[in-house]
Structures are given as C-alpha cells and as structure tokens.
Model the fold of this input.
Amino acid sequence: STAHVYQLDIYVNDLARKKKSSKKYDIESMLGLNLIGDGIGDMVAGFIGGPAGTNYGENISAMAITRVFSIPVLIAAAIIAMVISCFTPLINAIYAIPYAVIGGLEIYLFGAIAAQGVAIMLEKKVDLFSAKNIAVIATIMVIGVGGQYAFGGNIPFFGLNIPSIAGAAIFGIILNLLLSIGEKKRLQKAD
Done:
C-alpha cells in the first residue's frame, strides 16, 4: 500500500506537469490515512468473509497503460465487473479469452508494475549503487520470482508454506534492518 501511494503521487504529479499545471499534489503525505483506510477495509472484508484489498498496483498500472484516470470510468468498470460476475454466460465469455491473450496482458501489466517500482526508487533518489540496496533488491526479486517458479508460489520453511511474495517482502525487511545496523554512525563518520 505504501508503494502504491508513492506510485499514485508520481503519476498524478507527472500528469499535472504534462498538462502544464503548476500545482503540486501532495498525495504521499496521506500515507497514514491510506493505511488506516486499508486496515478498516480489510477488517470489514474479513468480517464478511471477503478477501483483503490488494489490487492497487494493478489498478494504477491499468490507468497508466490506458491513460484513463476518470473516476466515473473506474466506477463504471467496477459495476460492469460485478454484473459480469453474476451471470454465467458472461463469465464464460471471459473464460473464452485465449490464455495467450490473458498471459500477454499479465506480462504487460505486471511488467508495468515492476517498472513503476523502479520509477519510485528513482523518484525517491534511492542509491541503486549502494551494496546494501542492491543486496536487498536482489534478494527480494530472487526469492519472490524464484519462489513462485521453483515452489509453485509457496516456499517451504520449517514446516510452513510461506507465500513467495510475502516471504520475499519479509526477508527484504529483515535484511534491510540487519544491513542498516550502524549505518548512521558510518554516515556521521563520513561527514
């Protein structure tokens, strides 16, 4: 969710700049409200037996790919998706789309999400030549993608099956914390 707030901030400000607007939208400052909203939404969804809301990246990428940022269009798309889900013939029409087409769309969509991740790191001026950052990024990518490929999405870990994406994120956070020990002291000595 945090990355998606930054992602949205970059897109909105980029779009404003392209439309020759001098206004700067400070979306990233609303991260706290976003996390609270996500938490409440996930609790309500869980209470009624629904899934957690985890599709921000896909939606933002779809908006970036199509260049459609209209709220009424997004609402209409959501309503259409809900209507389709209620009628078997419409569901079957969706399932009739060839796997190659769906696969191609997935490659494009998730590739766009990955590219946006790089854009966020560049926008936030992350030092991509830092040994620590390279180690964290590389291990997250290898565990996430490798776990998906090698273990079918769940990495066996002491009798547990850890989802590869979640495992990669957790490992990345822990590795970043470990590699950050003493970093402030090193930076102070360098100054």
User: Anything to note?
Assistant: The chain has nine helices and two strands.
